[in-house]
Amino acid sequence: MEIYRLQVLRTDASGMPLEWIGYQEAAKLYHLGEVAYSCGTHLYTLHGGINAKTGCRSLIEVNSIIATQHHHNKGYGVDPNYVPPLSNPALFRRDNNICLYCGQRFHHTELSRDHITPISRGGIDAWSNVVTACKRCNNHKAGRTPEQAGMQLLAIPFVPTHAEYVYLQGRRVLSDQMEFLKAHFPRKSPLHQRLC
Ligand SMILES: [Zn+2]
Question: How far is the CA of 96 from the centre of ligand 1 (A)?
Answer without folding.
Answer: 13
